[in-house]
Design brief:
422 residues, alpha+beta, TIM Barrel, 13-stranded antiparallel sheet, seven-stranded parallel sheet, metal ion binding, iron-sulfur, 4Fe-4S, Radical SAM protein
Length: 422
């Protein structure tokens, strides 16, 4: 498996003499054959600025960094794939930070690119190639004309056409899981927030956060357009907004009005679940699905990344348990990172968290972050590091009733919560 690298112009090459290596946390590691899959459709190769790739010289058995002028290469995986290793590199300038993406190790083998990843879900619905851009343009124009005063549709049109956000695109295509952002504020200061970064963070937020408070009418219009099929999903809580539950009154009123007219589809919220009383109100209004974002079930690690304001990890756990007890299909948006998520203490804590809350689904989501900055932020490892592939196997063994996936699912037949008609 040959080392893959790029030159200063972004041209990608495989090295004829060096074996490609990966990275787990801050350790350079050899890549195992059973960790490799062919580069999936919808994946993107990117060069990592301010880095030098590291390969293994098979003759000497020594690791070697390529000379200046070369850059490491990583793959950005589509949804449905869980990365197992980071690219093997050292930074040529330690002061520089990598853009907020989830980089995966890539090698050249048998005449094609391979990545260190495991498919954890069906990527079909979230493959960018399955979004017809021409049809999307037509539907964006149709809905903007139909609802000319709806600021949410105008906001989402930029998300769909400018950022090529698939969830926003689904809102215009009236399919699968669609977006309805509601909040410009947040009760957390996430280190890797993709919509808002402090001026001194050194990161550039790849998206622009919404800057207005929508009306209930605007929210209801989008929800009713989306919920036209039995398995359609409308989701509060998007990358372009803050914490949706801070707008609890809008959400609850919109849900009541929609369910008074329509029992189709599923209402989902993507949330940090820290505002427990607000989350209970949303659950009681008829929520079907809840996906809670977390990076760890260990307080010190969770707090270092999320920087929660006036809530704790215990609030998150209480919110999840309440939702599960009320029949909501609960999941976590688990932000994972090789060399951290697969630590012994992290796995043990998460297994306990999942059992206490009655989780139904763990969505393995590759953390978009500069690795060095993240590793400096969080606690050091306390126990063994198992590796991401073994970690997935442990979860499947210890949590046999929990689905290991990558994105929001509708509940299996017979597990749907009864619709609350208003």
């Amino acid at each position: 498996m040959n080392l893959v690298y790029a030159d200063e112009h972004g041209n990608v090459f495989d090295h004829p003499d060096y074996i490609g290596l990966g990275r787990s946390g801050d350790m350079i590691v050899e890549i195992m054959e059973d960790e490799l899959i062919p580069l999936p459709e919808g994946a993107t190769l990117v060069s990592l600025p301010f880095t030098r790739p590291i390969g293994l010289d098979p003759e000497s058995g020594q690791m070697q960094a390529l000379p200046s002028g070369s850059q490491a290469v990583g793959a950005l995986l589509p949804q449905g794939y869980t990365r197992l290793c980071l690219p093997g590199y050292v930074k040529s300038d330690k002061k520089e930070k990598l853009p907020l993406f989830g980089y995966t190790a890539v090698v050249w083998k048998d005449g094609r690119f391979y990545v260190t990843a495991e498919q954890c879900d069906d990527p079909e619905r979230w493959d960018p190639l399955n979004c017809d851009r021409q049809e999307l343009n037509v539907q964006v124009e149709r809905l903007l004309q139909k609802y000319p005063d709806n600021r949410l549709y105008k906001h989402l049109s930029n998300c769909a056409l400018g950022y090529e956000c698939l969830t926003a695109s689904n809102t215009f295509l009236s399919r699968w899981e669609g977006a309805v952002p509601v909040s410009y504020s947040c009760n957390a200061g996430c280190f890797g927030c993709i919509s808002e970064q402090p001026d001194d963070s050194g990161f550039v937020a790849p998206q622009t956060r919404m800057n207005f408070k929508p009306t209930v009418d605007e929210v209801v219009e989008i929800m009713l357009e989306q919920l036209k099929e039995p398995e359609s999903i409308i989701s509060f809580g998007q990358g372009c907004e803050g914490e949706p539950s801070t707008q609890v009154k809008i959400i609850v009123e919109a849900m009541k009005r929609v369910r008074a007219q329509n029992s189709l589809g599923y209402i989902n919220i993507n949330t940090n679940a820290g505002l427990t009383d607000f989350m209970r109100a949303i659950v009681d209004a008829g929520l079907d699905l809840m996906r809670v974002s977390t990076i760890s079930a260990i307080d010190e690690h969770y707090n270092a990344y999320y920087k929660p304001r006036a809530y704790t990890l215990q609030n998150v756990e209480r919110s999840l348990k309440y939702a599960t007890d009320q029949g909501v299909y609960t999941s976590i948006n688990y932000l994972i990172f090789p060399g951290v998520t697969d630590r012994e203490e992290e796995i043990e804590a998460m297994i306990g968290f999942a059992k206490r809350t009655g989780l139904k689904l763990i969505q393995m989501r590759n953390l978009n972050i500069d690795p060095e900055s993240y590793l400096e932020l969080i606690p050091k490892a306390q126990g063994e590091i198992y590796g991401m592939k073994q970690m997935l196997e442990i979860y499947r063994q210890e949590l046999p009733d929990v689905v290991i996936g990558s994105y929001t699912h509708v509940p299996p037949a017979g597990m749907r919560r009864p619709i609350i008609a208003r």
